[in-house]
Each structure stands twice: as C-alpha cells, then as structure tokens.
Design goal:
Number of helices: 3
Shape: globular
Order of helices and strands: HEEEEHEHE
Distance between the termini: 19 Å
Radius of gyration: 16 Å
Number of strands: 6
C-alpha cells in the first residue's frame, strides 16, 4: 500500500456519500440516460452542467463504504462529499458549484500540510478535481497516476 511505502503525516480519505434522491443519478430524471449532461437551474438564477451517473455510493447502502483493501485508520480525515441533494461534488474540497466547501482545506492547514498527493478512482473526475482544488487552495498538489484509475 502507498501509505506503508512512504511516510505521510496526514492521510485524508474522500468518498461519495449521496442521498438516494441525488441530482446526479440518472434514475432521478425522467427520460434521462446514463452519462447524459443536463443543466441544473438554481433559485438564484445560476446554472450548472451535471453528468448523470448510475446510482452509486448511496448513504448507508452497499457500495458507499471504503473497499476492504483500503487501510483506514482512526487518525485519518474522512470527508463525505456529494451529500447535498441539489449539487454534485467531485472534489474533496468544494461542491461542483463552489457554493460550499468541505472541512478538508481547514483540517489540512491546521495540521500544517503543504503538499497533497491525490490517488484513487475516477482520475478524470474526483481525483483530478481534488488535485486542482488543492493547488487553488495553496497546497503543492500531485496526482499519483499509477495509484489512480479512470
């Protein structure tokens, strides 16, 4: 495991933790198809493109937990994202509309973290978005490609 091959002062884990009626699920949009892009419209007049995904990572259901092979320690920071029914969240730092942020930035800064190494599933969405946002938050950000999947 990567965490055992190198010393990391802080390990943060993110996971999708969606409510069953999440806006990103194709099945919650009548007549929609998987991977279709729709436009979400908000009360303040803003709009946000949303890819429609198969139902995944529903809070408390099979598939929402970390995989058994991932070593999770009591000292790890765990960030649940995608919890707001009305907006998706690819990044571990912000929702896709950048309306709300998670506690990740604050917790990493409080711990004195200056470098962030991003790994995981969905390199083209979640891992990549987290790495970009880490850099925008002032961290030196890396993607470890051989520990990530598209």
């Amino acid at each position: 495991a990567l965490r055992n091959a190198f010393h990391f002062d802080v390990v943060a884990l993110t996971r999708d933790w969606h409510p069953h009626n999440h806006c990103s699920f194709w099945s919650n949009h009548e007549g929609a198809e998987v991977l279709q892009v729709i436009t979400l419209k908000y009360a303040d007049g803003t709009e946000l493109d949303q890819v429609l995904w198969p139902v995944h990572c529903v809070q408390g259901e099979w598939g929402s937990n970390f995989c058994d092979e991932l070593e999770v320690r009591d000292t790890d920071i765990i960030i649940d994202k995608g919890t707001n029914v009305d907006v998706d969240s690819y990044s571990g730092f912000f929702d896709n509309g950048r309306r709300q942020q998670t506690t990740l930035q604050r917790q990493l800064k409080e711990a004195g973290v200056s470098e962030v190494y991003c790994v995981g599933i969905a390199l083209d969405y979640c891992v990549g978005s987290t790495a970009v946002d880490a850099a925008q938050c002032g961290f030196t950000s890396y993607i470890v490609k051989d520990c990530s999947k598209m």
